[in-house]
Design brief:
The complex is a heterodimer of chains A (139) and B (95).
Chain A (H helix, E strand, L loop, with lengths): L1 E6 L1 E3 L4 E9 L6 E7 L7 E2 L1 H6 L9 E7 L2 E15 L2 E10 L10 E3 L1 H4 L3 E7 L3 E8 L2
Parallel strand pairs in A: 4-9, 5-8
Antiparallel strand pairs in A: 1-11, 2-3, 3-4, 3-7, 6-7, 7-8, 10-11
Chain B lengths: L18 E3 H7 L4 E9 L5 E10 L2 H6 L13 E6 L12
Antiparallel strand pairs in B: 1-3, 2-3, 2-4
Chain lengths: 139, 95
C-alpha cells in the first residue's frame, strides 16, 4: 500500500469541501470538474450535459435509481462514463448518476461514497481552516 | 441568452483566441459562467490558463455549449465550466 496526501479546497468560508476531477471520452479531450466531497452521497453524480458530452446515452442507462431532489423524487439514470479521474486515481468505465444540480450549488456534481470506499480514506479537518484527504492505495 | 456566445468559427484574432489566466477571466467576466478551453492546468487540476469559449449569466446555457464530440485540440488540454463571481456565504447543497 502507498499513502498519498491531497489538499482539499473549500468554499464558501471553508464550510464545504471541493475536489477536482476529470471525466473523458474514449478519444478526445476531458472535462475538468469541481465536485463536492459528499460522504452522504452513495454515488458520484455528474451533470447530464457532461456525461452526454463524453459519449453516454442517458436514454439507455445501466439502470435508474430514485433520487430525492428539491422537486421531489426522480428516477435518475446511472450511466458508465469511459473514464473518471480524481485524487490521482483513474477508473475506467465508472458508473455515475446523470443529474444536473441547480446552478446555485456552484459545483458540477458530487464525489460519493462509491469512489471513497474503493480506498482507505482519511479526511483531516483543522477546525475547517485547512482540509486534507489521505488515500491508501494498493501499489 | 444573457451573455454573448463567441463564434468559434470566426477566422482571425478574436476574443476566443486570447489565452487568459483565471484571474484575468474573473476580471473580464465578473459574475458570469464561462466555458474554458484550458491550455494549462497544475498537477492538482487547477486552471492556470485557458481560452474563453463561451460566457453567460445562465449556467445551463454554458452546459449546453459543451460540444457533444470532444475533439482533440493542439492547445486545449481540458474543458471546464467555472463561475467568475463570489459564491454566497450561505450556500447549502441539498440533493
Amino acid at each position: 500500500m502507498s499513502t498519498r496526501h491531497y489538499r482539499l479546497s473549500s468554499f464558501p468560508q471553508r464550510k464545504l469541501l471541493l475536489v477536482r476531477a476529470a471525466v473523458g471520452p474514449e478519444r478526445g479531450i476531458p472535462i475538468r470538474l469541481n465536485l463536492l466531497l459528499d460522504t452522504g452521497a452513495r454515488y458520484t453524480l455528474l451533470p447530464v450535459e457532461i456525461v452526454r458530452a463524453v459519449g453516454c446515452d442517458i436514454r439507455s442507462p445501466l439502470r435508474r435509481i430514485p433520487v430525492m431532489t428539491a422537486q421531489g423524487v426522480i428516477q435518475a439514470p446511472i450511466v458508465e462514463v469511459p473514464w473518471f479521474h480524481c485524487l490521482g486515481q483513474r477508473i475506467e468505465k465508472w458508473p455515475v448518476i446523470a443529474h444536473t444540480l441547480p446552478p446555485e450549488s456552484f459545483v458540477d456534481g458530487l464525489l460519493g461514497m462509491d469512489f471513497l470506499t474503493r480506498f482507505q480514506v482519511t479526511i483531516l479537518l483543522d477546525q475547517a481552516r485547512s482540509a486534507e484527504i489521505i488515500l491508501r492505495v494498493p501499489d | 441568452m444573457d451573455g454573448m456566445m463567441l463564434d468559434t468559427a470566426s477566422p482571425g484574432k478574436s476574443e476566443m483566441d486570447e489565452i487568459l489566466t483565471l484571474e484575468e477571466m474573473r476580471e473580464r467576466y465578473p459574475g458570469e459562467w464561462v466555458l474554458i478551453g484550458c491550455t494549462e492546468l497544475d498537477p492538482e487540476m487547477r486552471i492556470i490558463r485557458g481560452r474563453i469559449l463561451a460566457h453567460s449569466l445562465d449556467r445551463d446555457e454554458i452546459y449546453r455549449q459543451i460540444p457533444l464530440s470532444l475533439l482533440v485540440d493542439d492547445q486545449i488540454v481540458a474543458l471546464a465550466v467555472e463561475y467568475m463571481g463570489e459564491v454566497p456565504e450561505d450556500v447549502v447543497v441539498v440533493l
